[in-house]
Amino acid sequence: MRDKAHARGVMAMLVERFEGQHLDRLLDLKSAVDAGQLLGDYNSAFLARVFEEARESKRLVDRHPEYQPLYMRALRLYKEIAGQALANEMKASAQTSVPPGTG
Known about the structure:
The longest helix is centred in the first third of the chain and has 33 residues, at 2-34. Helices cover 83% and strands 0% of the residues. It is mainly α. The protein has one domain.
């Protein structure tokens, strides 16, 4: 019983941290990359850190299926941001490269 209470407390803390410290920034990043902006090193590091925290939380989420929908939505948001950021980087790279035979 005590282990379940502890695990619930940890899950509540993780959800609170996600909602209080990460979600707004992730949504801002999503808007930025959707508008074609590049992430930059600072935001890329933040995104990597949030993903690592999610990966570390996976075992706990697996033991508490009631958190699975939130976990999956967070991962989907991460994937959308990372995918669009990569597309933006590739587009920016293609625009700045010199076509063969013109340099």
